[in-house]
Each structure stands twice: as C-alpha cells, then as structure tokens.
Amino acid sequence: MCLTCHFIDNNWTLQKRVLSYTFMPPPHSGLALSTKIHNLLCEWGLEERVFSITLDNAYTNDLSVDTLRDELNLKDLLVCKGDHFHMRCCAHILNLIVQEGMKGVDPSIVKIQRVSNM
After folding, report:
1. Segments making up each domain of the chain, as ranges
2. What is the pTM of this model?
3. Which residues of the chain fall short of a pLDDT of 50?
4. Closest Cα to residue 26, out of 58, 57, 44, 1?
C-alpha cells in the first residue's frame, strides 16, 4: 500500500510526498485497510490534518473510508463531518468508462483487424 500526502505549503506551492510504501498483508478487508491507514496517519502526526482521502471504487475501499471517517468524526477531526472525505480516483473512473465503452467497440475492432491483415 502506498500512502501519499498532498498539501499547499506556506508559499502556496503544491507539495506531494510519499509517506509510506508498505506491504499490506491479507485480509484486505475494509477494517484492515482503515486500521492501517489510521495507524500511518497517527505515525506521521497527520490524524488532525486530513481533509480527504482518494481511493478507487472498490467495495472494500468504501468500507474502509466509512470506518476511517467514523473514527475521525468521533474525535471531531473532519471538516463538515467528513461529507467530502472520500474522493473517488478520477483515473480509475475514466478507466472504468473506457473499459465499458470498449465492450461495444471490441467486435468491430476484431473485424477491422481481420480485414487489414488480408
């Protein structure tokens, strides 16, 4: 699992850092992911500074975000009670759209390949 941090510094410059690149042993359940992320945030002293988290659309990620949101809300650490906490990964969403679109085009591509190989 890779945990990254994006923030704006005092000079209003966007900064990006890799905080942790670590092995995530099974099970990859929502609770296990939430616990791992929460522990890493605490290690870095960032538990009180998180605004949002970006993950893909996997079901386990939804569970982990809900669990992590609940934990942070118990301590009143999230802006707007975490209403904007889970940001879906745009690259993953775009990939899903393209994959779905390719399903309809796929038979046509095969036919074009056959004709072009003649």
Report:
1. 2-116
2. 0.74
3. none
4. 1
